[in-house]
Amino acid sequence: MEKLWSKDFILTNLSNFLMAFAFYLIGTTMPFYIEEQFHTTESETGLILASYIIATLILRPFSGFIVDTFSRKKVYIIAYFLFVFVYFGYMWASTITLFIIARMMHGGVWSVITTASSTIAIDVIPAKRRGEGIGFFGLTTTLAMAVGPFIGLYLYEHFDFDYNFYSTIFFGIIGLLTALLIKVPVREIKTKTVISLDRFILKAAIPIGINLLFTAICYGMLFTYAAKYGMQLGIENIGLFFLFMAVGMMATRFFAGKLLDKGYVNQLMIASQATIALSFLLFGIANSEVLFFTSALFIGFGYGIASPTYQTMFVNMGTNDQRGTANSTFFSFYDLGIGLGMVLSGFMATYFNNEFKYLFLICSASATIGIFYYLLISKNIYRIKKNN
């Protein structure tokens, strides 16, 4: 069996963790900074933060084309440098307009750096262990999502906010230096690339992308209203919800990838959607801390299986020189789903008079619809169009 944990795979995982850690360290405290620095209302703060998502969605399709057309490592290094630099932009922004410009730059850079990072990871993973490798690579982001916000909130509560920026920049620089050490397998770069829609969006994977929307929308709703729902239920230590989610996600990394490599794609897809549907149902009827945190564990478990399964399916539906496009298409549908979830949940919360449980019951229904959509449409399309 080919070696998975090569030096380059380890370095790729480390650089991705440091990038994601820097991102999530400051991401959870950014609303506080905006309100304190510019004295904005909650709605104004939300619009400023949304500018990041808009830029990400606009540039995400082009990121795949860039990664597939040019040297992946060079693209990764340049994007990593800009990723670190944009945090200086936040610090230097003296007006809301300048801050929004920095925010949109951040979104654009994030769309490229995440596409490049995941594509390089796939390049250094042995083909026969791709599912397992993607699973462990995704684990680095999961760990960053759990540790980053905890450290960020601690710094915010005990120090001046500049320390959040300094810490983010520091870990970003360490990640950039780590990325410089990665040796990416040599591949032929086409000097003349035919410009077509398939260079920006992997058309064959669109049905799978629609499937992803059913679960990504729920993810957007969850991160927008999970904390408020917990407060509504009188739950103490609501922050533990995301820790339990992370534990659930991490638990899947030790078996989901291996099962993917053995060809159990359909089984994992159905199992993940069913777990997500049932866990959101449990979350929606939660009336105690036990149910609240137990559902978090299973939500994480479901998404922990779904994420590498979806990404593996996207990659398998493209050729080797479309890996960047495949990854950017995966992230495009993921970003779109989260964005829709954030927007729709606001309207739904108003409609249901802030009875947040109904949002999560709708999430359960959405994931259930996703199961039937997969069985009736996506499953056969994947079987016919997968390339490897």
TrEMBL record:
Membrane-spanning ranges: 12-34, 46-67, 79-102, 108-127, 134-157, 163-184, 204-226, 238-256, 268-286, 292-310, 331-352, 358-377
Pfam families associated with the record: MFS_1 (PF07690)
One Gene Ontology MF term: transmembrane transporter activity
Signal peptide residues on this chain, from the entry's feature table: none
InterPro entries, A to Z: MFS, MFS_dom, MFS_Exporter, MFS_trans_sf
Residue ranges of every copy of the Major facilitator superfamily (MFS) profile domain listed in the record: 8-382
Keywords: Membrane, Transmembrane, Transmembrane helix
Domain of life: Bacteria
Protein name: MFS transporter
